[in-house]
Design brief:
The protein has nine helices and ten strands. The protein is an alpha/beta fold. The structure holds adenosine-5'-triphosphate and magnesium ion.
């Protein structure tokens, strides 16, 4: 098995434009290179619109429309059939969407249990129901398991999405601004949860605007002008941020 959880080589991505006669759209990703060893905790920063969510979708095998190579757990995603890619996703990746993607008609517990419905492994996810309850406890929502998304706050929905990503104990967790809607204390709880996952050997790639998340990470990368780079250290920002 590959030592690398993720490997990107020369990844380019552009979205199709609505008015093709005006020429091809601008390239959003322009040669992204990335190697993530198993067990790393990576924070990805970058301005709004820089392509962070786009990049995370590629890493999660949710978008195969790119050029270059994307390897997840050693497997080149585009070389896989749709079914094989879906199976890899189910087996290896917990994905926390920026927009949560909860099903409104299901309760919090049922939403957390969704991956079980798509699980292709024989016997499904062991003890799925008990684990779903545990995952909700772990994000501080043990008391809200019967609530539907419409009855939850934005931050609570975000945490349901996080619990769902953790249901199958995936070796790789990709999360898109998972503390974006949380107050400082609840956000701290989620960061501590990531640290526990990291300690257990889970590979984490977290898109974030929050300095506290970046501080918890073992490596911070900045997406800028279509490429990943090491961020410039800004001492002024490092001061004073502790209060947030
Ligand atoms: N499906 C799509 N079709 C066309 N353009 C898209 C699509 N999705 C995103 N874009 C464009 O690509 C750019 C990057 O979007 P993306 O969501 O990756 O940014 P981001 O870095 O995650 O921003 P934010 O911090 O605001 O979440 C944006 O300009 C957006 O308009
Ligand atoms: Mg985004």
């Amino acid at each position: 098995m590959s030592e690398l959880a993720l490997e990107l080589k020369g990844v380019h991505k552009r979205y199709p434009v609505r008015a093709p006669e005006s020429g091809a759209g601008e390239e959003l990703l322009r040669g992204v290179e990335l190697s993530v060893a198993r067990g790393e905790f990576i924070a990805i920063e970058g301005q709004s619109g820089s392509g962070k969510s786009t990049l995370l979708h590629l890493l999660g095998g949710l978008d195969a429309d790119y050029t270059g190579e994307v390897r997840v757990m050693g497997e080149e995603l585009r070389a896989l059939s749709d079914a094989a890619r879906a199976a890899l996703r189910n087996r290896a990746i917990g994905f926390v969407f920026q927009s949560f993607n909860l099903l409104p008609q299901l309760t919090a517990l049922e939403n957390v249990l969704l991956p079980e419905a798509f699980c292709t492994t024989k016997g499904g996810i062991p003890d799925a129901r008990a684990r779903a309850k545990e995952a909700l406890e772990e994000v501080g929502l043990g008391g809200k398991s019967s609530s539907r998304p419409g009855e939850l706050s934005g931050g609570e929905r975000q945490r349901v999405a996080l619990a769902r990503a953790l249901l199958a104990a995936p070796p790789l967790v990709l999360a898109d601004e998972p503390t974006g809607n949380l107050d400082a204390r609840t956000g701290q709880g989620v960061i501590e949860l990531f640290q526990r996952l990291h300690a257990r050997g889970t590979t984490l790639v977290i898109v974030t605007h929050e300095v506290r998340v970046s501080r918890a990470a073992t490596r911070v990368l900045l997406l800028r002008e279509g490429r990943l780079e090491a961020p410039r250290i800004d001492p002024l920002q490092t001061e004073g941020e502790g209060a947030r």
